[in-house]
Amino acid sequence: MPISPRDRFANLFDGGIFVEIDVPKPIIDPLQFKDQKKYPERMKSAQKTTGEAEAMLLAEGEMGRTPVVIAAQDFSFMGGSMGMYVGNAIIRAAERAVELKRPLILFSAAGGARMQEGILSLMQMPRTTVAIQMLKEAKLPYVVVLTHPTTGGVTASYAMLGDIHIAEPNALICFAGPRVIEQTIREKLPEGFQRAEYLLDHGMLDRVTSRLEMRDELITIIRILSNSSPQIKGDLPSPKQET
């Protein structure tokens, strides 16, 4: 079941309390792209449907009394597609994490690059890769949670550069989708191919974790990676609500 970044944050941060992080706004419709609709029209439709300005939301706050920065993609917003805004968001999230010396947790959900921005969208792959390198040079944890679906250029860049990779159960995680691969090689793929459990069995993931267990799992991981002492589960502050 899909979950919005805002609802996800309410379930992760202590008391459901978080502060949004502003993202630099890119040029609107740089290519003046039009298919069946003009790009600005598609943007307005997505904004009206989701109530969000773009496909990624950033926030800072505490999880289990551990300060963190979290970025989350919204697949409901134009398939979570990676355009210039998403690139700016990841760079800003990395900058804020370095500035505050906090771990960065990223929830990916995307159909890939945003076709309406053409090559400018594809350029977000190296931009976001450089941003993640900033975290590594600062020796700050970067944990990626891959949700359904995570595909295309997102998988080929920031989504697979984490120190730890967790996936939600049965999430589709790939570059090219199974249907495209089957049409290319003219063979039937194995059962569950490119799903989270298959990738875990083949060494591509560290964990497959349900949403009910995700908060506790992330708190444990970020405290280990930050060389912090563990906390007893019963002593941890509760989120606003559970999914």
Topology overview:
Layout: H1 5-12, E1 18-20, H2 39-50, E2 56-63, E3 66-73, H3 84-100, E4 104-110, H4 118-122, H5 124-137, E5 142-150, H6 152-155, E6 164-167, H7 178-185, H8 196-201, E7 207-208, H9 211-225
Parallel strand pairs: 3-4, 4-5, 5-6, 6-7
Antiparallel strand pairs: 1-2, 2-3
Summarize the structure.
The protein is α/β, with parallel strands linked by helices and 243 residues long.
Describe this structure as you would to a colleague:
This protein is of the alpha/beta class. It has a single domain (7-235), classed as 2-enoyl-CoA Hydratase, Chain A, domain 1. The protein contains 9 helices and 7 strands. Strand 3, helix 3 and strand 4 form a beta-alpha-beta unit.
CATH architecture: Alpha-Beta Complex
Distance between the termini: 10 Å
Percentage of β-strand residues: 15-25%
Residues in helix, %: 25-40%
Give the helix tally.
9
The CATH superfamily name is 2-enoyl-CoA Hydratase, Chain A, domain 1
Q: Kindly state the mean pLDDT as a whole number?
A: 93
Number of strands: 7
Overall structural domain count: 1
Order of helices and strands: HEHEEHEHHEHEHHEH
Oligomer: single chain
Q: Major sheet: size, sense and barrel closure?
A: 7 strands, mixed
Task: Give the CATH class.
Answer: Alpha Beta
Morphology call:
globular
